[in-house]
Amino acid sequence: MQTLLLLGLVGLLAQLVDGSLGMAYGVTSTTLLLLVGANPAAASATVHLAEIGTTLASGISHWRFGNVDWRVVRRIALPGAIGAFAGATFLSWLSTEAAQPVMSGILLALGVYILVRFTAWGTPRGRIGLPLRRRFLAPLGLVAGFVDATGGGGWGPVGTPALLASGRIEPRKVVGSIDTSEFIIALSASIGFLVGLGSAGINLAWAAVLLVGGVIAAPIAAWIVRHFPPRVLGAAVGGLIVLTNVRTLIHSELLVIPPVAQTAVYTVIVLAWAGCVAWSLRAHLAERRPALETPVVPDAPAAPPAATEAAEARD
């Protein structure tokens, strides 16, 4: 029961992150599932099964608000589904001992990317331009789908910044299109895990609890995105992912590190993490300062009725 409550909290926190940043649900959920003892393939399979429900609800919401570019969805979803299926079957064939450091390495790279991305440059922005071409979207979808399945997440961290950096689609439609197409990715990855692991490899209770936590968090995330700085949240989440996956790698059989060195590594990561969060907060406040300091010009006082009548008479 305690494990289910913890997983419900994991799903809630992951959805809060994803709803505020437009990415990192899978990375956050899978990292925390590994932390509580799930094996890599089962963790990724459980997260993707839960994502079928969360991404469907998210896609419908974005569609209702007009945040979806269906041309982008059509061109990126099919290659993404192929990559996700391939990544799921590949991860299923690996032994647990081999998959653990592989997945942690992928998650670590994604965590470093998220940390640097939001610390150095803040929320990605792009400019509106020409329509996105299939020769750009197809390889992007294939790579993002494969990374998403093997790493337990990555569709958002890989796809969203790439689309924003292209400068050819509105930011709100980037998030909406990525979230909508992710339903196909989660479905394809789940099928791949069913083929590779069978239903016995997926914990349905865990997936259901993650789903419930995500549904509860959805409206809260909508409030957070209006009030909590995405730049600060991105740096905080990126540091958490880096720290937890470095811990997994240190305790794997690939690395033999003395306890003193382990403490030094953790100390450096925590200090760097705190510095990144502080820098992000400072940058956010600096970005807000010009808007706050802009003087408000009061409206001109209304002329008295007599003066108004006299002016009309002169005209």
UniProtKB/TrEMBL annotation:
Coiled coil start-end: none
Residue numbers spanned by region Disordered: 296-315
UniProt-listed InterPro entries: TM_pro_TauE-like, TSUP/Inactive_protease-like
Membrane topology, record value: Multi-pass membrane protein
Keywords carried by this UniProt record: Cell membrane, Membrane, Transmembrane, Transmembrane helix
Location(s) in or outside the cell: Cell membrane; Membrane
Entry's transmembrane regions: 72-92, 98-116, 136-156, 204-225, 232-250, 256-281
Signal peptide feature range: none
Family recorded in the similarity comment: Belongs to the 4-toluene sulfonate uptake permease (TSUP) (TC 2.A.102) family.
Name recorded for this polypeptide: Probable membrane transporter protein
Organism (species): Marinactinospora rubrisoli
